[in-house]
Task: inverse folding
């Protein structure tokens, strides 16, 4: 016969409520691309599973206090991460609630309850991942990828949504260079507009066409410079999705303008 303590009964009740879908009420609008959210939650699950493996070491060596410290750190960091992924802070608070247990007379007696809480937290996170497709995506006015030039969107979207911002931006820069090369056989803005005699249609009026041509030329030259600058670091110093999107928008503008371009040999 197994007798459950009040705390164990509470833990069972929390697990049952998760299984029955009560956490669905906390599902809110994502603040980041869906795939980035998926990756972030997966990372917290891996960290929790690593912590579960370390529980065996704590039991074998009596290192209960050290393990409890690691558990508290994992719980706090996971709750904080969840708060950055969803617009509503309830997600982080709910995770904290389902992984909180009372302190007991010693680390040894607190340990089994926190170990159960870890298992509950991992189950909760996996359930959250399973419902990601039901979550409302990030606001389109923040990261409206669909409005980018079709070639930029097609080749950079998966990288961006997967959180590979530097690679997504690098890909967009390469697409612009490839278009310049296809038009003039030169892939840099200065050479394409100089040696390649590239001309872009779209000036507001004939008397400002020179200004317009210089504007597009300097835009493509800026992309050359940004590409060179970012190639000197492993991640391109790009960890902010908004900044990465702005670079994609820069490449998208260049591509839209180059859609109306042709080489005019003198």
Result:
């Amino acid at each position: 016969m197994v007798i459950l303590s009040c705390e164990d009964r509470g833990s069972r009740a929390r697990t049952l409520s998760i299984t029955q879908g009560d956490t669905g009420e906390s599902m809110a609008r994502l603040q980041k691309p869906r795939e980035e959210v998926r990756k972030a939650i997966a990372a917290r699950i891996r960290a929790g599973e690593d912590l579960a493996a370390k529980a065996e070491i704590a039991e074998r060596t009596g290192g209960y206090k050290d393990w409890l410290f690691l558990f508290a750190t994992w719980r706090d960091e996971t709750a904080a991460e969840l708060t950055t992924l969803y617009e509503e802070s309830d997600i982080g608070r709910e995770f904290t609630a389902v992984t909180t247990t009372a302190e007991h007379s010693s680390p040894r007696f607190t340990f089994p309850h926190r170990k159960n809480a870890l298992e509950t937290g991992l189950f909760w996170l996996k359930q959250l991942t399973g419902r990601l497709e039901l979550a409302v995506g990030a606001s389109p006015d923040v990261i409206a990828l669909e409005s980018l030039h079709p070639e930029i969107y097609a080749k950079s979207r998966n990288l961006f949504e997967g959180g590979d911002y530097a690679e997504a931006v690098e890909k967009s820069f390469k697409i612009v260079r490839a278009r310049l090369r296809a038009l003039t056989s030169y892939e840099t803005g200065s050479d394409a507009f100089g040696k390649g005699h590239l001309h872009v249609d779209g000036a507001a009026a004939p008397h400002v066409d020179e200004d317009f041509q210089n504007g597009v030329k300097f835009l493509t030259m800026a992309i050359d410079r940004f590409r060179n600058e970012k190639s000197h670091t492993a991640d391109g110093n790009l960890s902010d999705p908004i900044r990465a999107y702005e670079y994609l928008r820069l490449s998208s503008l260049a591509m839209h303008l180059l859609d109306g371009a042709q080489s005019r040999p003198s």
